[in-house]
């Protein structure tokens, strides 16, 4: 049996773009021959429903970088969340340094009104100017998403304390300054919180057990002897690539990701995932 673990943003789907049809076709072809395709994403489960609705057949999903999972035919499970003590510590630091951040919970994303971060967003747009139209597209998508699809609250930490039923999957920040990124990595890391970069100019703060590598090891206990593939593009995929039998990078992956991989395939935009599956795995 083959099991393909695949990242979404920048790997299976370009940010806010259409999924190449070959990627969908590859999922169905894998399932038809008795193999598994598993989405493994930094997104929360609430942000995956639109993509899941496009599928003709259900897939297993590992979300929030291993913070939870949804197996076919079973309810959603949340198993590695940030503690309230860590949330308080992290949020206090981000507030003090005026960092643009948002909080992923089991019921969606919360943040302050986007208008409070106009200076931060302008700095991010300037940072992304060198990549031209793509940089503008990324920031337009992000700003629209934060304004229209997230919940806005005056005080995120107080809101969490007032709603103890919420589970915090991760805290994510966007910051234009590379120097600030490095400082925040050091300041925010602890025994109870891991910090890593994802996509463009983002850092994510998660429970240390909330990693794609740990999640895959747990998943593979059900399928001893199966051959595992991991396909990714960013730093949050490194833990996945460390534990699978065949680590694979899309052509647009970061150099540090490509260095970890046995195979470099086509770009995300060109349906590299689907093409690889058809060429290498489908019998």
Describe, in plain words, how this protein is organized in 3D:
A hairpin with a 6-residue loop joins strand 4 and strand 5 (77-78). The longest helix is centred in the middle third of the chain and has 16 residues, at 133-148. This protein folds into 2 domains: 2-80 and 210-280, HAD superfamily/HAD-like (Rossmann fold, 3-Layer(aba) Sandwich); 84-206, Hypothetical Protein, Haloacid Dehalogenase-like Hydrolase, Chain: A, domain 2. The chain contains 11 helices and 14 strands. It has helices at residues 21-32, 49-53, 84-96, 118-127, 133-148, 156-162, 178-188, 212-220, 238-243, 255-258, 272-280; strands spanning 2-6, 36-40, 60-63, 68-70, 77-78, 100-105, 108-111, 151-152, 168-174, 194-198, 202-206, 227-232, 246-249, 263-264. The protein starts with a strand and ends with a helix. It comes from Candidatus Enterococcus lemimoniae. This is Hydrolase. InterPro entries: HAD-like_sf, HAD-SF_hydro_IIB, HAD_sf.
């Amino acid at each position: 049996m083959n099991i393909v673990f695949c990242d979404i943003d920048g790997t299976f789907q370009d940010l806010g773009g259409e999924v190449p049809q070959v990627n969908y076709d590859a999922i169905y072809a894998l399932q038809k021959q008795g193999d598994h395709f598993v989405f493994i994403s930094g997104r929360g489960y609430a942000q995956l429903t639109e993509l899941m609705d496009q599928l003709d057949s259900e897939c297993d999903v590992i979300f929030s970088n291993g913070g939870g999972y949804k197996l076919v035919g079973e309810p959603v499970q949340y198993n590695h969340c940030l503690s309230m003590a860590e949330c308080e510590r992290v949020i206090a630091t981000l507030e003090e340094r005026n960092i643009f951040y948002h909080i992923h919970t089991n019921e969606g994303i919360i943040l302050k009104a986007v208008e409070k971060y106009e200076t931060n967003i302008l700095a991010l747009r300037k940072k992304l100017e060198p990549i031209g139209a793509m940089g503008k597209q990324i920031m337009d998508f992000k700003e629209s998403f934060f304004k229209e699809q997230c919940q806005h609250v005056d005080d995120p930490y107080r809101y969490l304390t007032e709603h103890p039923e919420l589970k915090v999957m991760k805290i994510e920040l966007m910051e234009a300054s590379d120097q600030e990124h490095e400082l925040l990595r050091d300041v925010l890391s602890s025994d109870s919180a891991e910090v890593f970069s994802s996509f463009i100019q983002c850092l994510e703060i998660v429970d240390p057990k909330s990693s794609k590598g740990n999640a895959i090891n747990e998943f593979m206990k059900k399928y001893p002897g199966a051959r595992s593939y991991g396909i990714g593009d960013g730093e949050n995929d490194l833990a996945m690539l460390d534990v699978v039998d065949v680590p694979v990078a899309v052509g647009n992956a970061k150099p540090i990701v490509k260095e970890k991989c046995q195979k470099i395939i086509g770009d995300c935009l060109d349906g590299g995932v689907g093409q690889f599956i058809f060429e290498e795995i489908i019998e």
